[in-house]
Q: What sequence folds into this?
């Protein structure tokens, strides 16, 4: 396949947009080459500016769980747009989508809508700090919670108690309140509680991690975090921006039957428009402005187009009794197919999968945290990525991303993908 026009468009974009992209994950820094420019998309396919048809495994990084240009979502947006695109006043639709979300997700009474996953996590942390009157939070290395200051922290060393910022512009003052633990490592969490008695407001976690490839929690890990939080009156925040309305109607809370205190949403909840949300039981949510002391606001929050898209998406998921089973079956089929051809070609790999999130790591050892995720062979991944692109299969341009399976994929598409992997793996 030829990607000529994309290259030209990228050269123009680079002159006026830093790195040519409005979000760094879209650049091909991890794999080399220049990004593909999208022209349109429908169902399981993206069509690029060179008129190539690509089978899409990014799906806008998750939202397009029912396929691109999903008709009920498109219709809802068009209908709303005719009636005004923003009011800065409350609308009935906001209550409707809130009621639906609260009915689908366990352990929440109220939900507030924002404009991105970043905003949702940032606000959840402020709420947790206000509610507990404590400053520190624990996050896990390799988990992503958006780009707000508190979360752009990584370990200086495994043993360090205080995080060091991993972006200039994040102050030491902010970084000192973010404590780092290792995913699936309970002892690392216990040590932080030991060293910071009565200071930890919240643990925030991707309950199934998706930002270091797909990394599932070990059996009992989330339950153990729940117990630790209860013992220390610390809040447990599930960042379900990726997993919410994807793993199950009620997300990971439902899938593994663990209760979070605050849940963050994004991606699927907006049906492809910019939406995030955070939710909790009354006691916590009533701490928010205007009824509580914790301030949080947004000029375009609850925007009618965004709410219409999100409502149509949640309704479709809520009314479809087999959607999550279908997604799981399709992903399992892909998993088995890829496993078979990589094994036949003697490639060293590990595949992680939970529901419709799956990632291929080029390392034979188990991947259960950030360190083990980093052990994958990046050169092999680069060849794998570019090989698949040549075959018309588009996966995320980074070894640290999961593939997002959409219900629009047919078994023919999956077979096509498995064949492409077979071809590519001969030259890895
Ligand atoms: C994508 C993501 C975010 C950030 O959401 P944005 O809408 O990009 O701000 C936060 N947490 C997780 C787990 C995510 O996957």
A:
């Amino acid at each position: 396949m030829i990607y000529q026009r994309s290259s030209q468009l990228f050269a123009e974009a680079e002159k006026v947009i830093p790195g040519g992209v409005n979000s760094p994950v879209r650049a091909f820094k991890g794999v080399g080459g220049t990004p593909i420019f999208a022209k349109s998309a429908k169902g399981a396919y993206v069509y690029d500016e060179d008129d190539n048809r690509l089978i899409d495994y990014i799906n806008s990084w998750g939202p397009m769980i029912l396929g691109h240009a999903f008709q009920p979502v498109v219709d809802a947006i068009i209908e709303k747009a005719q009636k005004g695109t923003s009011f800065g006043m409350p609308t009935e639709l906001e209550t409707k989508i809130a009621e639906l979300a609260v009915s689908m997700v366990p352990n929440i009474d109220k939900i507030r809508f924002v404009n991105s996953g970043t905003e949702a996590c940032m606000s959840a942390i402020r709420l947790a700090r206000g509610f507990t009157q404590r400053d520190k939070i624990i996050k896990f290395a390799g988990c992503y919670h958006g780009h707000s200051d508190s979360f752009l922290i990584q370990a200086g060393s495994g043993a360090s108690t205080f995080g060091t910022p991993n972006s200039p512009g994040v102050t030491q003052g902010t970084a000192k309140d973010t404590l780092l633990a290792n995913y699936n490592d309970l002892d690392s969490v216990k040590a932080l509680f030991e060293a910071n008695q009565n200071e930890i407001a919240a643990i925030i976690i991707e309950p199934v991690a998706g930002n270091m490839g797909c990394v599932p929690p070990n059996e009992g890990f989330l339950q153990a975090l729940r117990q630790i939080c209860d013992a220390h009156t610390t809040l447990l925040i599930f960042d379900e921006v990726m997993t919410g309305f994807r793993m199950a109607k009620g997300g990971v809370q439902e899938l593994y039957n663990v209760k979070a205190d605050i849940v963050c949403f994004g991606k699927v909840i907006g049906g492809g428009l910019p939406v995030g949300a955070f939710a909790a039981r009354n006691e916590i949510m009533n701490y928010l402005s205007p009824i509580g002391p914790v301030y949080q606001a947004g000029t375009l929050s609850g925007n009618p187009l965004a709410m219409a898209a999100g409502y149509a998406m949640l309704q479709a998921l809520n009314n479809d009794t087999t959607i999550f089973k279908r997604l799981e079956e399709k992903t399992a089929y892909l998993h088995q197919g890829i496993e078979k051809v990589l094994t036949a070609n003697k490639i060293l790999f590990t595949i992680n999968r939970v529901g419709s999130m799956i990632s291929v790591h080029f390392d034979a050892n188990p991947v259960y945290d950030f360190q083990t995720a980093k052990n994958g062979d990046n050169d092999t991944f680069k060849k794998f990525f570019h090989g698949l692109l040549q075959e018309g299969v588009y996966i995320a341009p980074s070894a640290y991303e999961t593939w997002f399976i959409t219900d629009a994929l047919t078994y023919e598409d999956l077979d096509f993908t498995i064949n492409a992997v077979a071809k590519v793996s001969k030259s890895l």
